[in-house]
Amino acid sequence: MTTSTLNRVLVLSIVSAIAFSVMPSASAQGCSDRSLNGSFGYTVTGTIVQNSGPLVAGPFVAVGRIVFDGKGRVSTVRSLNDDGIVLQNDSGTGTYTMNSDCAGTFNITVGPPADQIELTLSIVLDDTDQVRGVVTTPNAVLAFEARQQLPIFS
Questions:
Q1: How many of the other CB atoms lie within 10 Å of CB of 145?
Q2: Strand pairing partners for 77?
Q3: Cα(138)–Cα(123) distance, integer angstroms
Q4: Cβ-contact 109, 118 below 8 angstroms
Q5: Predicted local distance difference test score (pLDDT) of residue 9
Q6: Which of 26, 50, 52, 82 is the most buried (most CB within 10 A)?
Q7: How many domains does the chain have?
Q8: Are the CB atoms for 77 and 71 separated by under 8 Å?
Q9: Nearest CA to 142 among 35, 36, 68, 59?
Q10: What's the chain's Rg over C-alpha atoms?
């Protein structure tokens, strides 16, 4: 072999080794509660179908910050508009569970003390640190989208 051929073979071997070392393994571990960890900015949009407790039938939108602690607990602060009724700085807490397939559920109690409501969501954590979900509470057709917040440097 010539020196040029040996150099090509060596370079190809190195590139192949690097490529295989960064590929995900087929036996990579799935998700768990620890996989969903950190602060996320989120939006909830949709419709309340029928008056239900403090929820008023009509269009619904909310934005907020939600924190998953990696141990199955969640907290939020949000502002919302429920058919023209505005509520700001509404907070809530709850629990979540992630399955190995990166799908899961979370339950959260939100609203002022006199009008609290428990919401249940089915969620999916994708590989870009986004959470997508649907509210499964009766009389609500609501979609949930959250993106992980980046650290803020001052």
A1: 14
A2: 65, 91
A3: 16
A4: yes
A5: 44
A6: 82
A7: 1
A8: no
A9: 59
A10: 22
Q: How far is CA 134 from CA 42, 98, 150, in A?
A: 13, 15, 24
**Angle formed at CA 114 by CA 111 and CA 116, multiple of 5 degrees:** 35
List the domain range (segments joined by +) for residue 137: 33-148
What one-character DSSP code corresponds to residue 36?
S
Distance, CA of 90 to CA of 92 (rounded, Å) = 7
Q: What is the CATH number of the domain that holds 109?
A: 2.40.128
The whole-model pTM stands at: 0.77
Q: Is residue 5 part of a domain?
A: no
Q: Is 87 exposed, middle or buried (0-12, 13-18, 19+ CB in 10 A)?
A: middle
Helix (H, G, I), strand (E, B) or coil at 53: coil
Q: Who has greater pLDDT, 34 or 6?
A: 34
Judged on CB neighbours under 10 Å (0-12, 13-18, 19+), 36 is buried
C-alpha to C-alpha distance for 105 and 107, rounded to whole angstroms: 7
